């Protein structure tokens, strides 16, 4: 790096730096090409200068990749990223040894037509990495400054301090995966790392665990090949606290498991499992204090394979749905996303058919946010004060459209979709029912605002009298006898809570039934074929 200006802050911003870009096989004969750039120069501008300087084909699409360890992961820069700023984050040693140092550098890469990155021969890339590793081991190349262990079992001195230090060291180098024997520890980077592209799928295909840098693909790969070789079902359990990245890791696993089975309708299964994401997410995720998109349920995904390793179908099940969230949420938390999507995205016709109101008018949504009522949903968009109805960066109208599309993809007919939205609206209206004592002497309950009953009966498509009975009385069975007992005022919450939970469970069952059907198309020949399955449990 050379700085050609040493003035005040303004002038420092304008300073010029020299970037050394390695074009590799794109410009044979050029080891690196020096490009002058400023702190604010974008990757797109640097690439333009490179194209002119190296006289590259202008019709092709190029990207810059940042490498922090030769032969290691490549971080592809977006066209708007500023390479100089990235370079300024490199350690001083790396900047001082620009020419002889080989660890930190920018590479020029070509983009394929499908948007993937052209890496040239993977084998030669792997060979270089391996050779380098061997040379480091023999002492021909210096050891990395801070030695880290990719398997905690190999730590020479294993205690809490060394364990955490090792994980921290690795994380600083954006190595988010570390083994403990056959267990994989993942530290959520909260940013996208380009280590999930096809190059990595290929690289981890059929490799013994621990041979390469730890990766979630390695775990998927070991499970897949163990299933095929030993002909035994395999199970991967993902656990962690809320927001630690379980859902994201599940998606990476499913991606790799289906990529390994390229034949058959593998990609279709992946598309459905992952495509069903928006549906599961809308009905099963909510904003919590720790995670704006927290899954409030456990997920069991079973991918079934034929003996040949081809995906045969899949099975997804939700369990332990957090039912209490429907009727009560903690401070700074929300009810399930789907309610907010519906209220923001429904058309005028749907608003009137489902008797929709503003979110603040529903007890099940406004318990933690007591703010003055707004005139219309659009008012929320102009409100800069944060509240629980809007989350930064969220576009609820768009999310509702996306949900409708995803439901269509998972096989819901328009009529079923309407029924589900009608049930959701019924849940919200049920929450607004208020109770009182029937009479001064009679402790059983009555409804204060009976005008809600016709709305809910219309939405649930049940008779008003039946609904009233269900809300104020309960059935119990004693020895050989069925009793209908009135709810007492102290039990008023329970009276509608049971009904609300029942509705939500029925919606969840309908969702799962639909998904199971679409993920397991009936194919007569397959019925006779042996199957093995791989399950992912979060
Ligand atoms: N490997 C990863 N790379 C980049 N971002 C990640 C990774 N893992 C998780 N994240 C990000 O972290 C956030 C939380 O992750 P995720 O929703 O998967 O957590 P979770 O453990 O499923 O949470 P919850 O239990 O609350 O549902 C997401 O915004 C996700 O994009």
Automatic annotation (TrEMBL):
Q: Give the GO terms filed under biological process for this record.
A: establishment of epithelial cell apical/basal polarity; intracellular signal transduction
- Entry keyword ATP-binding: yes
Q: Which Pfam families would you find in this protein's record?
A: Myosin_head, RA
GO molecular function terms here?
actin filament binding; ATP binding; GTPase activator activity; microfilament motor activity
Per UniProt, which keywords does this protein have?
Actin-binding, ATP-binding, Coiled coil, Cytoplasm, Membrane, Motor protein, Myosin, Nucleotide-binding, Synapse
Show the InterPro entries listed in the entry.
Kinesin_motor_dom_sf, Myo9, Myosin_head_motor_dom-like, P-loop_NTPase, RA_dom, RA_Myosin-IXa, Ubiquitin-like_domsf
Q: Where are the transmembrane segments?
A: none
Regarding protein family, the annotation reads: Belongs to the TRAFAC class myosin-kinesin ATPase superfamily. Myosin family.
Q: What is this protein called?
A: Unconventional myosin-IXa
The species this protein was found in: Patagioenas fasciata monilis
Q: What is the lineage of its organism?
A: Eukaryota, Metazoa, Chordata, Craniata, Vertebrata
């Amino acid at each position: 790096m050379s700085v050609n200006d040493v003035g005040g802050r303004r002038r420092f911003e304008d300073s010029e730096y020299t970037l050394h870009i390695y074009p590799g096989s794109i410009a044979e004969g050029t080891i690196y090409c020096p490009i002058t750039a400023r702190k604010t120069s974008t990757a797109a501008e640097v690439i333009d200068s490179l194209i002119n300087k190296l006289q590259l084909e202008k019709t092709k699409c190029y990207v810059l990749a940042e490498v922090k360890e030769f032969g290691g992961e490549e971080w592809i820069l977006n066209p708007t990223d500023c390479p100089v700023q990235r370079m300024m984050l490199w350690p001083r040693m790396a900047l001082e040894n620009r020419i002889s140092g080989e660890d930190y550098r920018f590479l020029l890469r070509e983009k394929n037509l499908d948007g993937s990155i052209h890496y040239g021969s993977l084998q030669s890339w792997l060979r270089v990495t391996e050779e380098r590793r061997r040379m480091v081991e023999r002492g021909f190349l210096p050891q990395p400054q801070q030695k880290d262990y990719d398997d905690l079992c190999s730590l020479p001195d294993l205690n809490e301090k060394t364990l955490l230090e090792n994980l921290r060291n690795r994380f600083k180098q954006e190595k988010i995966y570390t083994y403990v024997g056959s267990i994989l520890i993942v530290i959520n980077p909260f940013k996208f790392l380009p280590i999930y592209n096809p190059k990595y799928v290929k690289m981890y295909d059929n490799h013994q665990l621990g041979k390469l840098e730890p990766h979630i693909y390695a775990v998927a790969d070991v499970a897949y090949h163990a299933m095929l070789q030993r002909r035994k079902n395999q199970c991967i359990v993902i656990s962690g606290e809320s927001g630690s990245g379980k859902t994201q890791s599940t998606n990476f696993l499913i991606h790799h498991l289906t990529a390994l089975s390229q034949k058959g309708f593998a990609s279709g299964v992946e598309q459905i499992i992952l495509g069903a994401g928006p549906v599961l997410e809308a009905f099963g995720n909510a904003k919590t204090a720790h995670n704006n998109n927290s899954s409030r349920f456990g997920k069991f995904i079973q991918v079934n394979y034929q003996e040949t390793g081809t995906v045969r179908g899949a099975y997804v099940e939700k369990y332990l749905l957090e039912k209490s969230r429907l009727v009560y949420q903690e401070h700074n938390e929300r009810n399930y996303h789907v309610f907010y999507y519906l209220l923001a995205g429904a058309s005028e016709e749907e608003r009137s058919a489902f008797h929709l109101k503003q979110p603040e008018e529903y007890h099940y949504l406004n318990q933690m946010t007591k703010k003055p009522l707004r005139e219309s949903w659009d008012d929320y968009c102009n409100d800069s004060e944060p509240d629980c109805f809007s989350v930064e960066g969220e576009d609820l109208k768009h999310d509702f459209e996306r949900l409708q599309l995803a439901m269509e993809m998972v096989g819901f007919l328009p009529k079923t979709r309407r029924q589900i939205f009608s049930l959701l609206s019924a849940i919200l209206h049920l929450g607004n029912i208020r109770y009182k004592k029937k009479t001064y002497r009679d402790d059983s309950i009555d409804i204060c605002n009976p005008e809600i009953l016709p709305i809910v009966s219309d939405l649930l498509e049940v008779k008003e009298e039946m609904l009233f009975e269900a809300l104020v009385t309960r059935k119990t069975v004693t020895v050989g006898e069925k009793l209908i007992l009135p709810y007492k005022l102290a039990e008023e919450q329970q009276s509608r809570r049971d009904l609300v939970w029942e509705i939500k469970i029925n919606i969840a069952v309908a969702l799962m039934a639909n998904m199971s059907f679409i993920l397991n198309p009936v194919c007569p020949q397959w019925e006779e074929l042996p199957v093995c399955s791989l399950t992912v449990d979060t």
